[in-house]
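Entry 14. Ran structure prediction on the chain below.
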Amino acid sequence: MEDLGQIRIVDRRIHAFQVGGVTVTRIVELEGPGPGTFVLPQATPENVKRFAWLVPHFATPDGQVNMSIHAFVIESEGKRILVDTCVGNFKRRSVPSWNDLRGPFLDDLREAGCPRESIDVVLCTHLHVDHVGWNTMKEGGRWVPTFPRARYLFARAEWEYWSTLQGPEAEAFGDVLGDSVRPIVEAGLADLVETDHVVTGEVRLEPTPGHTPGHVSVRIRSKGAEGVVTGDLMHHPIQMARPDWGSAFDYDGEAAETTRRKFLEAHADRPVRVFGTHFATPSVGRIVRDDGAYRFEV
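Output, structure tokens:
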């Protein structure tokens, strides 16, 4: 197997990786085991236990799944790009474990050498609740941009869908758009971009539709090395073995499965570092073929 580089563990929540000349630092907000059926209805304990390779990183022996909510800071060509901003503090959310958090995310970001004032670009793979939370912070009773120097990139198709959506789906987890997205637009810091937008000469968006209408992944190419931040085209490595298992939160399940299968086929047995947006520690590895399907190798 080709060497995919070294993992440098800074502390429990911070892990740094290298893709050619690009540094990718993972900042964890929440991580731990839980029932897989919350996200993947077919991931019952009995079904999870069938895939022994998931233990210990991605599943427990009793069939719970290990998952993570984290952000990635990509440092490329002098820019610091923050990919997905987790749940955020003080947000009113319908999921109890996400509600009114008081976590150390900004302290961890600073500890990693990336204080919030140093972020140049915030890039949301999509506008779901656990990918936009730290876009804003509470200041004087108002939601203000957390990263005041940054341009926030939202796929145009994603914004156009969520900004016009009404009814129960629009506020299933709370006023996500109101407290974490609209304040960015109103502050004039949002750039609505196409799903193949080029961020730097080493980093670009890649359309991966299905989970949401304008969902994107993030492609990294540098000095002959390659990596990709998945976003939510997959939520857990078990979907490599079972790409037909869709998320309960997919906008278009058929399109999401097609995207997953194409992604797996394109990257299997290649030296491409896959950064799983919800994959538990170490969260980074490669896709390998496994008896007619695929698995994740770290």
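The two ends are 11 Å apart (CA to CA). Will compare against last week's run tomorrow.
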